[in-house]
Specification:
heterodimer, A: 186 residues, mainly alpha, 7 helices, 0% strand, B: 68 residues
Chain lengths: 186, 68
Amino acid sequence: MSSLPPEDQSPAPAAPPALPPGAAPAAAPYVRLPKSPGLAAFLSLFPGLGQVYNGQIARAFVFFFAWVGSIYLTASGHEFPFAFMIPFVYLYNMIDAWKGATAINRRFLGGEGEKMEEDAVESPVWGGSLVAIGLLVLLSNMGWLDLDRLAQWWPLLLIAVGGYFIYGSILKKKAEETADEQPPSL
Amino acid sequence: MNNRPAFSPEGLTLGIGLIAIGVLWTLSNLGRVDLLHTLKTWWPLALVLWGSLELVDLAVRRSASREP
C-alpha cells in the first residue's frame, strides 16, 4: 500500500537473479535480501515499529494508534469490544510486519508480477471502511449520533464480515474455474 | 505496481494533516481558536480524507490498468 522507495541497499547485483517462480533458490548465488522478516516481527513487539522498518509508515501509524486507542478505550470504560481488540491488534501487527518484509523480499527477487498480498488494498473495502469509521466518529463528536447506543448493533459487523468472506470465496472459486479449463477435482 | 498514479494516499493525508495542524496551531497562538478542542472534534476528518484518497487512488489505478 505504501509507495516503497527503491530497495538498493544491498551490494547491487548487476542483474538481480530473476528466479522463475518455483525454481530452487538454493541454486542461486548468495544474495543479501533487503528485509529480515524475523527482525520486522521482533521490532513490532512495539506495535508499528516493524512497519517503520519495512518503510510502511502509514501502516505503522494505523497499528500504533489502533493499539493505543484500544487500550485507551478499554481503560476509559469500554471494556467490551476493545479489551478483545488489544491482543488481536498486537498479534496481527507482528504478523503484518513479517508478511510485509517477506513481500518486499519477494519483489526484490523479481517477483514483480505477484501481487497477491495486495488483494486487500485492491478492494474498495479498505478505503470505504476508513471513510465510514471517520464519519461515524465525526458525527458522534458533533453530538448527532450516540455511539454507545449504536454499539449494541456491533454484531452486524460479524454478519458483514461473514458475508464478505462468502463473497470472496465465491469469487475465488469462479476465478479458479475460469483460469484452468477443467475445474479442480477436490 | 507499474501503473501507480503520481500520489500516495497516506503521504498526501499526512501532509495535509500536518498543514492543517500547523494552521490551527498558529491560529490558536493568535487566540482565534482553541486548538485541543477543535482537534478533539474534527480529527476523524483525517480518516475520511485518507479513505477517500485511497478510493480515488484505487479508481485511478483500475482505469489505468484497463487502458494501458
